[in-house]
């Protein structure tokens, strides 16, 4: 690689193989997401995890990260990212600027969301279906944001009025 040193443009010398990032982003509790994805998917981790820059890492102490993971994985936030975030054609681009402007409403008690998040983790480990819990969480998020059933239908036409009213 030494013979190419004159044309390598990275500020991370000598070879510019990557741009350095602070280690704190890889340690402890965090949420990760692919920067470019067909559908926004956010993953909570509570262990050290080193990823490339194709992932976006979120760390905050302002909100419970398990609740935030539930919120960011909701159909409401996918809708928000499509119309207020960054898109490249049909591909979502998860970047700092849109994430900083996500309207985060916190429930008075986020323990129900965190409990359902934990239940999803257990079911996933057993390769069990999580769709019913995910649907319940989506409805809870819609209600947290005070959406009407008509609003919900624009975002997710699969939710029935009975489902919406019973949650």
Q: List unreliable stretches of 5+ residues.
A: none
Count of all domains: 1
Can you give the helix content as a percent range?
25-40%
Strand order of the largest sheet: 3-1-4
**Which percent band covers the strand fraction?**
5-15%
Radius of gyration from CA coordinates: 19 Å
Sequence of secondary-structure elements: EEEEHHEEHHHHH
Mean pLDDT: 90
Question: Sheet with the most strands?
Answer: 3 strands, antiparallel
Strand tally: 6
What is the molecular shape?
elongated
The tally of helices reads 7
Structural class: alpha+beta
CA-CA gap between termini:
60 Å
Structure in words:
The protein has one domain. It is 39% helix and 13% strand. It has helices at 65-72, 75-84, 96-100, 111-125, 131-144, 149-155, 161-166, and strands spanning 30-34, 36-37, 42-45, 55-58, 86-88, 91-93. The strands form two sheets. Strands 3-1-4 form a three-stranded antiparallel beta sheet, with helices on one face. Strand 5 (86-88) and strand 6 (91-93) form a beta hairpin. Helix 1 crosses helix 4. It starts with 29 loop residues before the first strand and ends with a helix. The model has no long low-confidence stretch (mean pLDDT 90).
What's the helix and strand layout?
Elements: E1 30-34, E2 36-37, E3 42-45, E4 55-58, H1 65-72, H2 75-84, E5 86-88, E6 91-93, H3 96-100, H4 111-125, H5 131-144, H6 149-155, H7 161-166
Antiparallel strand pairs: 1-3, 1-4, 2-6, 5-6
């Amino acid at each position: 690689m030494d013979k190419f040193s004159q044309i390598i443009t990275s500020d991370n010398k000598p070879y510019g193989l990557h741009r350095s990032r602070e280690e704190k982003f890889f340690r402890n509790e965090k949420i990760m997401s692919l920067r470019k994805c067909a559908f926004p998917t956010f993953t909570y981790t509570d262990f050290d995890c080193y990823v490339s820059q194709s992932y976006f890492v979120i760390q905050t102490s302002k909100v419970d990260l398990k609740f935030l993971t539930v919120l960011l994985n909701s159909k409401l936030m996918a809708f928000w990212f499509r119309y207020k975030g960054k898109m490249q054609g049909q591909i979502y681009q998860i970047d700092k600027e849109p994430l900083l402007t996500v309207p985060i409403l916190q429930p008075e008690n986020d323990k129900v969301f965190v409990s359902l998040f934990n239940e999803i983790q257990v079911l996933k480990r057993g390769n069990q279906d999580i769709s019913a819990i995910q649907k319940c969480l989506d409805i809870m998020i819609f209600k947290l944001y005070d959406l009407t059933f008509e609003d919900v239908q624009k975002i997710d036409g699969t939710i029935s009025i009975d489902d919406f009213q019973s949650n």
